[in-house]
Protein: Heme A synthase
Organism: Candidatus Thermochlorobacter aerophilus
Amino acid sequence: MKPEINPLNLKESNRSNFARTLRRLATLSVVATYLLIFAGGLVRVSGAGMGCPDWPKCYGMWIPPTHASELKPPYDPVAFNATLTWIEYINRLIGVLVGLIILITFAYTAVRFLRTPKLFWSAFAATALVAFQGWLGKVVVKTDLNPFVVTLHLSLALIIVSVLIYLMLQAYAEERAHTAENRSKTPLTKYAAGLWLFAMMQLVLGTQVREKLEWLSRNFPLFTEAEWLAQVGWIGKLHGLTGIMLTALTWVVGYKMLMERKVTSGIAHSCMLTMMGLSLAEVVVGLSLVWVGIPAVMQVFHQWIASLYIGVAFALTVQSHAQSVAEESPAYLTHQATVSG
């Protein structure tokens, strides 16, 4: 005789499996978006931003040319650079791939979690923002790399990453809804949110420094890199100072939380340690840009490390907030009273 299967347990098991799949899709979306941010950094430092002078096609073609002889009017063969063209084209292909992954994630969420607002609306928001980001990419090209639009383009990419991280953590919480560990309440949420906001402001400030350096390199090509840095002025000094402040604050908060054992969540603990490591790496790379010069590879990693820090800080904010909310729920308090009794 077969044992009876509890329909409620079966439903919960299926929901947990669906949530696991969604978490994996969201994680893939996060990784793909960070790959796109890295590719965008390569485009910026290589000067390939206008490698394709039109959008969505490239030199009027869906597959760009490899030689100037393939160009058709009105494009100027003299201005054609195959390397820069294909760097930008590959960046666009990665962008399309990221958009498809996020669209698939949304479709899966709509099918399996239509009545779970935190999952559905975060997936919808990510998809809508990606669509807007694609349109903004067109504006970047049309405005010939307008500095404000380029900064907005990067900032929006980080907002998309943050939304996807939120979706990933919410899917993880849904997956482990019936096996969550008990946590101790911490004041970590406000600290993490403050570090995330500080890092976003620091990244925007960094883009202003980079834009001024690019302007100097175009208008004063005979200057040395040291002379370019000297001409950046107060905004460069402010960027360096706030970068050191962010690192110091990260380590103070991290040390305080870890030493006082206020970070008991495994995810929060990993996030805090990662932020401490990333903030230190960011300062080292930033100082190398001043002491060694301004090598292109270091510029890419400088921006990318800052982007990673922002994502991890947001994950810490979401995770610590969820932890505090769970601890204030009636179910948690009842469980604690039972254990203590």
The first helix runs from residue 7 to 46. Residues 182-341 form one domain. The radius of gyration is 24 Å.
